């Protein structure tokens, strides 16, 4: 993980899904701004099989604000789920510019379905709609180009979330975090 500028310690790391936190490890990892680190996560009990887990990095204690999150990933072999392949961490994006979102359906279970929402997310705190909002985008399309809103925080990390309903279940998938500049 690569902490934001000004971050000197990480207070906790949570393994989370659409349900409340599955496991949280209070940590006090000292970090150097601008330096990336690797941290091995060892949950106390095996997590349930799921295609949409994320790691959330928090400041100010285990219930503090989220300042970073991973892209969604799979634990076990759930037999379903989407993979968001773009944007990636080194994406060069700017306010008012275009952003290509790409995804894969490795299990071919989403044919005929459309996304219910595409959202830009600022560190799990602020959900920002794209304007105009993408509507009726079929999963089979594999990609969608959107326009990044104006007025965002400059040089700040964001990620994209896509939502859909399959078999009466709401599913959410997230991209890697990336920086948006020139705001």
TrEMBL record:
This is 11289_t:CDS:1.
């Amino acid at each position: 993980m690569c902490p934001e500028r000004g971050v000197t310690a990480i207070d906790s790391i949570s393994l989370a899904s659409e349900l409340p936190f599955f496991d949280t490890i209070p940590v006090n990892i000292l970090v150097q701004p601008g330096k990336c680190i690797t941290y091995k996560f060892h949950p106390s009990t095996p997590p349930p099989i799921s295609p949409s887990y994320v790691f959330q990095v928090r400041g100010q204690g285990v219930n503090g604000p989220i300042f970073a999150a991973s892209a969604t990933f799979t634990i076990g072999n759930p037999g379903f789920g989407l993979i968001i392949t773009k944007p990636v961490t080194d994406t060069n994006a700017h306010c008012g510019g275009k952003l290509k979102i790409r995804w894969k359906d490795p299990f071919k279970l989403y044919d005929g379905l459309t996304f219910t929402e595409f959202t830009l997310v600022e560190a799990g705190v602020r959900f920002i709609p794209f304007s105009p909002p993408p509507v009726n985008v079929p999963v089979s399309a594999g990609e969608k180009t959107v326009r990044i809103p104006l007025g965002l925080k400059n040089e700040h990390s964001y990620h994209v979330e896509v939502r859909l309903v399959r078999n009466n279940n709401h599913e959410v998938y997230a991209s890697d975090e990336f920086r948006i500049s020139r705001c």
